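REQUEST ID: PR-0412
SUBMITTED BY: lab tech R.K.
PRIORITY: routine
TASK: structure prediction, single protein chain
INPUT:
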Amino acid sequence: GRPTANGNKVSIGELPAIAPRSFPLCMHNMNTKLHEAHHLKHGARQQLGLFLKGIGLSVEESLAYWRAQFTKKMPADKFNKEYAYNIRYNYGLEGKRQDWSAFSCGKIINSPGANAAAAEHHGCPFRNFDEAQLRAQLQLMQVTGADSNFILEKVRGHHYQVACGKYFEAKHKGTTLIERELGGIEHPNQYFEESM
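STATUS: complete
OUTPUT:
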């Protein structure tokens, strides 16, 4: 891996162990779908891919990570032809050669909504999931009771980043992120850094 903002190095071998706790719900959702469907559409590939870059995966590791999933459903040459370019592009190795940054919460929340029925899994689950779906997802992530109710109440008021801050607190017992950060999560990579 490459160092993250606070100097952590993360390798793909560690991801299964750290994702449930240290990935915000949006990234955990897309990562889970990637492992279930062995594919993600462009919006989710961009959002998750730049996040993985931001947490310290090198371009080689990112290529290996995506290739391992996609080639469960397609030949390696199809992956290399149709998908590898985009990953290298995100690292500034193709096209404009710009070193792209991971999307902030604001950008993710304001991007056109995802539609899971159409296999679109990008975006913010706090914004895009209906209440029953979000409650079920929180339960799956062992966030229940008062924490779950607080999150759902914030979502009803469209305070998605505060909801995510409370989700962080629920996954990291004893933290006071909401009070400290005055509101919530600003960036998925901030969530990850705080968690680590």
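NOTES: The two ends are 15 Å apart (CA to CA).
REVIEWED BY: pending
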